[in-house]
Amino acid sequence: MTYLDYNATTPVDPVVLDAMLPFFRQHFGNPASRTHVYGWQAADAVAQARDQLARLLGVSEKEIVFTSGATESVNLALKGAFEARRSAGGHIITVETEHKAVLDTCDHLLRLGADVTYVTPHADGLIDPEQVEAALRSDTLLISVMVANNETGVVQPINALAQLAQERGILFHTDATQAVGKLPLNLSDGLIDMLSLSGHKLYGPKGVGALVARKHVKLTAQQDGGRHERGRRSGTLNVPGIVGLGKAAELCQQQLMTEALRQSALRDRLEQGILSRVPDAAVNGNATHRLPNTTNISFAHVDGERLLDSLHELAASNGSACTSATTEPSYVLKAMGLSDELAYASVRFSLGRFTTDDEIDRAIQHVADTVSQLRGHS
Question: Would you call 76 helix, strand, or coil by DSSP?
């Protein structure tokens, strides 16, 4: 089977695994143990990982809060900011195509008295600063817009949106889960206040992530019990996971540009190969402002459920892994104006570090043969 679902999760890079292994048995100490060498070794490893991630993102290591993953990071950012600054306002702006980690957290805040505006993207999945500016109110507390969409790969104009927020004294958070390690992200200009990420999207382990929260950002902790991570997130640190995240960040920094060029060439090859062989197929999302590894293609005149079931030689998806259990069509594609039928019959192909030319060629042939067979049966 050819794996083209890297946006759902990535395999742990062998170099990352090698870095992690000693911290399960040999260096197993708790970094909060300050009186012996086991604790010191663990603390040093965490500090190194913090520095590796800080270098990738252009931030201070003191601004990194380690978490269990991007979902926890998003919850801490949105809930923590709302609770810490609620007296200054309760209005939040986000986008209809955000990941469920953001949308569900906003739903929770609605029940706590927040007011949320959901911006509708254009047909290509992009929003523009004018749309966000039109939604601003005197009590707007926070704007949360993802860097890159997990289903379509569409990349939003984050710097322009963050600049808009900064000029008005509004906090700006971005879910960068799909972008970290794929796009150059440097927060040294100070525009982005908070950024969420997850290790398993960049060839690190599952169960570890981080929230970048700049020094001026006040957050109410969502998890109490020891005041770890400068009081922002209590709990014994996942040392092997953090070591893996740090090494993964270091590898991404070294390979980012070469992998972006290689994967974008493979993506274009996959895309053009499918479109040239399959009539009535179309790419969803902006063709320019997108991730180098992602394409989302709809296939007209095909039953969507049967399509994915029939692509038995491919690991791909019709949306986010977090919503794969639902039978509803993709809310992201529907927000972009696609019909239920086309949203059902759309497939996300996401490539990665270990994708090869041969795999792309096999995928093209398999998709073309499968769609042709399904249309013949219908």
Answer: helix
Distance CA 69, CA 80 (A): 16
Provide the CA 120 distance to its chain's centre, in angstroms: 19
Q: How far apart are CA 346 and CA 118, in angstroms?
A: 24
Q: Per DSSP, what are the bridge partners of residue 67? A: 209
Burial 70-92 (b: 16+ CB within 10 A, else e): bbbbbbbbbbbbbebbeeebbbb
Q: Which helix (H) or strand (E) covers residue 143, if one does?
A: strand 140-144
Q: How big is the chain by its Cα radius of gyration, in Å?
A: 21
Distance spanning both ends of the chain, measured CA to CA: 26
Measure the CA–CA gap between 264 and 261, rounded to whole angstroms: 5
Nearest-angstrom CA–CA distance, 49 and 61: 9
Q: Which two tokens stand for residue 359?
A: 């795999």
Distance CA 317, CA 326 (A): 13
Q: Are 12 and 3 in contact (CB under 8 A)?
A: no
Question: Could you say which DSSP state residue 123 is in?
Answer: T
217 close to 81: Cβ distance less than 8 angstroms:
yes
> CA-to-CA distance for 102 and 99, rounded, in angstroms?
6
Among residues 322, 337, 362, 369, which one is catalytic?
322
**Residue count (the chain):** 378
Q: Which residue, among 188, 105, 187, has the nearest Cα to 142 in the 3D structure?
A: 105
User: What whole-number distance in Å separates Cα of residue 192 and Cα of residue 292?
Assistant: 22
Is residue 252 over pLDDT 80?
A: yes
Q: List, for residues 99-130, the tens digit of each pLDDT value.
A: 999 999 999 999 999 999 999 999 999 999 99
Closest by CA to 44, choosing from 57, 55, 30, 56, is 30
How crowded is residue 117: how many other Cβ atoms within 10 Å of its Cβ? 17
Residue in 196, 197, 127 with CA at minimum distance from that of residue 164: 127
Q: Which of 74, 82, 4 is nearest to 308 (CA)?
A: 4
322 is catalytic: yes
Where do we find the tokens 């040239």? 276
Q: Which residues contact 218 (CB under 8 A, 6 or more apart)?
A: 81, 84, 85
Residue scoring higher pLDDT (302 or 87): 302
Dihedrals phi, psi of 151, to nearest 5 degrees:
-95, -40
